[in-house]
Amino acid sequence: MGVIGDQDDSEYTVIRIKDAVELLKTENSRAEVYQVENSDHVFSGKEAEVIALIADFMQRKILVEHGYSAFPKN
Fold first, then answer.
1. Predicted local confidence at residue 53, as pLDDT
2. CA pair distance 22, 41, nearest whole angstrom
3. Integer Cα distance of 4 and 2 in angstroms
4. Interval 41-54: pLDDT, tens
5. H/E stretch holding 3
6. Residue numbers of the chain with a pLDDT score lower than 50
7. Do 51 and 19 touch, CB atoms closer than 8 A?
8. Is 3 left (phi over 0), alpha (psi -120 to 50) or beta?
9. What's the longest Cα–Cα distance across the chain?
10. Extents of the domains making up the chain
11. Region class of 22: left (phi > 0), else alpha (psi between -120 and 50), else beta
């Protein structure tokens, strides 16, 4: 899973976002790559969206593949 803000122009970004997305997809055909619109390197103001992406990924790729149907309820 790769998540990147489409406005990420921080010192940590050494290649263009488009190239980073393509690199992830090329290196791992199973990779899922998400661009968060109007978001910077730390996803300022988009935290809930990123959390939802991660939770969905974990549920589909980890829990479901191991026989669970959803996150356990408290």
1. 96
2. 18
3. 7
4. 899 999 999 999 99
5. strand 2-5
6. none
7. no
8. beta
9. 42
10. 2-66
11. alpha
- The pLDDT of residue 38: 95
Q: Which pair of structure tokens corresponds to residue 17? A: 């976002």
| Residue 59, φ and ψ in degrees, nearest 5 | -65, -45
Element spanning 36, H or E: strand 33-36
Which contiguous run of DSSP H or E holds residue 57?
A: helix 47-58
Q: Any idea of the CA torsion for 48, 49, 51, 56, to the nearest 10 degrees?
A: 140
Q: Contact at 8 Å (CB) between 46 and 5? A: yes
Strand-pairing partners, residue 3, are: 34
The pLDDT, as a whole number, for residue 68 is 78
